[in-house]
Design a protein that fits this description.
Layout lengths: L3 H26 L5 H13 L21 H22 L7
Helix pairs in contact: 1-3
Amino acid sequence: MYDPVHVGLVLIGCLTVFAVLFWTLWALLVCEGGLFVKIGPFLRVVFTHATWADVGVRGPRELGVFEGWIVNLAGLAMSLFLALGVGGVLLAPARKK
């Protein structure tokens, strides 16, 4: 009735999609406090007279609140990529026959 290869491929595909979604959301929201924890101090340094030392940055090895920022930005980029990809598939114009 069902081909075991197709069932196996569906299971592996679902696990892969769940793993990518989990990593993306973890990288964006959880890793070293998440991206949203870093936005406030970054804006404070950029738009006020606060210095990087005021938000805990002591040098290239001690980034304070900004620990893990590259992972958070990678999660943000992956989230945008996935959202645009899904939106492109769901909102694609109908094909002419």
